[in-house]
Design goal:
mainly alpha, Jann2411-like fold, two-stranded antiparallel ribbon, 6 helices, about 50% helix
Length: about 180
C-alpha cells in the first residue's frame, strides 16, 4: 500500500508504523539486522548492532504508536500503549534539552536502537505540540490499519484510501443492510 508522506519528521513515524502490513502479516522489520539498516537509512541511528531484544522492543513500540494513531481516528485502544511508550522513553533516557538559541527539544541520551526509538518518540511529542499529530491516523479498516496523514480540511478521513478500504467497508455495510 502506498500513502502520501506526512510533513517533516512525522514521515519517519508514519513509515515506521507502516513497516508491518497488517492485512498480509508481512513485516519489513524481519530481523535485527534489517531493523538496524532501516534505522540507519533514516539517520535515526549510526553504528551499533541491533539485537533480537531490540527487534522485539521496536515491534512493540510500533504497535503502541499504531494504537495512538487509531485513537486519532476515533477508535478506542488499549492502555498498554501508554505503558510501552513510557518504557521506551525510560530506556532511551529522553530528556528536555535547551540550546543557546533559546529553543528546547526532547532528545534521547541513549545510543543504538533505544536512542533511535527515543528520537521517534521525540518526533511524536513535537508533533503533538505543533498540532500535526492529530492528522496522523491509522486506517479504521480492521484488516488494514495503515498509517496515513489526513490532509482533509476538516480532518475527517477514516480510511487510508477511499478507493480501497473505504469502498470495501461501505460495500460490506451495504450488503449487511440489504441481506436482512
Amino acid at each position: 500500500m502506498q500513502a502520501e508522506a506526512a510533513p517533516g519528521d512525522l514521515e519517519h513515524v508514519r513509515a515506521f508504523v507502516n513497516t508491518l502490513e497488517v492485512e498480509t502479516g508481512d513485516d519489513e522489520l524481519s530481523s535485527p539486522e534489517v531493523l538496524q539498516a532501516w534505522l540507519e537509512a533514516r539517520g535515526l541511528v549510526s553504528g551499533g548492532v541491533a539485537t533480537p531484544a531490540d527487534l522485539h522492543a521496536a515491534r512493540r513500540f510500533r504497535e503502541a504508536i499504531r494504537g495512538l494513531l487509531l485513537e486519532n481516528n476515533g477508535v478506542s485502544v488499549r492502555k498498554e500503549a501508554a505503558l510501552t511508550l513510557n518504557q521506551v522513553a525510560g530506556r532511551a533516557r529522553v530528556a528536555l534539552r535547551f540550546d543557546t538559541g533559546g529553543g528546547a527539544r526532547l532528545e534521547p541520551a541513549a545510543v543504538g536502537v533505544d536512542g533511535a526509538l527515543g528520537r521517534l518518540l521525540a518526533m511524536i511529542a513535537a508533533a503533538m505540540v505543533n498540532g500535526t499529530w492529530s492528522r496522523l491516523k491509522a486506517c479504521r479498516a480492521d484488516d488494514c490499519r495503515w498509517a496515513f496523514y489526513d490532509r482533509a480540511r476538516n480532518q475527517s478521513r477514516h480510511w487510508c484510501s477511499m478507493a480501497v478500504c473505504g469502498n470495501r467497508t461501505k460495500a460490506r455495510s451495504f450488503r449487511r443492510r440489504h441481506a436482512a
